[in-house]
Amino acid sequence: xxxxxxxxxxxxxxxxxxxxxxxxxxxxxxxxxxxxxxxxxxxxxxxxxxxxxxxxxxxxxxxxxxxxxxxxxxxxxxxxxxxxxxxxxxxxxxxxxxxxxxxxxxxxxxxxxxxxxxxxxxxxxxxxxxxxxxxxxxxxxxxxxxxxxxxxxxxxxxxxxxxxxxxxxxxxxxxxxxxxxxxxxxxxxxxxxxxxxxxxxxxxxxxxxxxxxxxxxxxxxxxxxxxxxxxxxxxxxxxxxxxxxxxxxxxxxxxxxxxxxxxxxxxxxxxxxxxxxxxxxxxxxxxx
Length: 288
Ligand SMILES: C[C@](O)(CO)[C@H](O)COP(=O)(O)OP(=O)(O)OC[C@H]1O[C@@H](n2ccc(N)nc2=O)[C@H](O)[C@@H]1O
Ligand SMILES: Nc1ncnc2c1ncn2[C@@H]1O[C@H](COP(=O)(O)OP(=O)(O)OP(=O)(O)O)[C@@H](O)[C@H]1O
Hints:
4-diphosphocytidyl-2-C-methyl-D-erythritol kinase, nucleotide-binding, 29% strand, 4-stranded antiparallel beta sheet, binds adenosine-5'-triphosphate, binds 4-diphosphocytidyl-2-C-methyl-D-erythritol, alpha+beta, Alpha-Beta Plaits, IspE, 7-stranded mixed beta sheet, Ribosomal_Su5_D2-typ_SF
């Protein structure tokens, strides 16, 4: 049995440049992994099938699961006949803007690369992953990166300055496709991507806080006012800066002072079932 960690991501910035002829949006976003992770186990089986077992009742255990799609893609591409059992222990909130499914798919790609001795590089796996979803390429590499194109073009960046990240997910589900559909590309207020890049290069915490921005945030907030309330609460409880991740609805807040972490965490617990205090790991997966 083989184990892979599948960490969640947050978006420090998310900008949309334009809508493409293929219906997707050309994005420019800075993402980083946090130490909240699903756990993925892979066990070879000789029935020639891909079997998924998931700890979470609402997550599909058939070909709709992104980990299934990752295994299926590799099997077809490399003519593999072996079966595999994939066990997913979900810790990342589902449909949250934290790339849970994408990270499971990425971990499956990394794990099967080892199990089936395919000797593919991280870039090759990321390329295969982009066929599953826009966030899978980033999740194959992890760490901190600028993602462009549909999200599949990755440039590695230095890890963010050290701080706590409080994640809070309201109990609503958000469809990424719906949020992009409701975005008016002509009235976008673009985030300061250059400022965020500089903050990462220089390790400037204040500048990182000031440069957070996500063009999908107002779209999700309009459809789900709970996200506005949650962001305000997090600010009131003392987070240094707050933003929605991806298409939402998870909101994250940075807290540098150790003493404030429990105040923000406990305060939010009163409003929200799913609250986590995590760190940005900056941990990149290097394949051998
Ligand atoms: C919001 C983010 O999570 C930010 O990291 C990503 O942009 C979305 O990544 P994802 O969930 O992996 O998205 P996909 O599964 O590829 O696409 C879901 C849907 O979102 C829309 N979509 C996604 C990515 C993109 N660059 N433009 C889009 O318009 C499309 O309607 C697509 O059908
Ligand atoms: N392994 C998986 N884990 C969770 N959800 C999955 C998985 N595979 C498929 N899904 C489906 O994908 C949907 C979105 O789940 P996911 O947790 O990946 O969303 P997300 O965090 O918003 O992703 P992203 O940030 O990439 O948009 C779920 O409602 C579920 O039906």
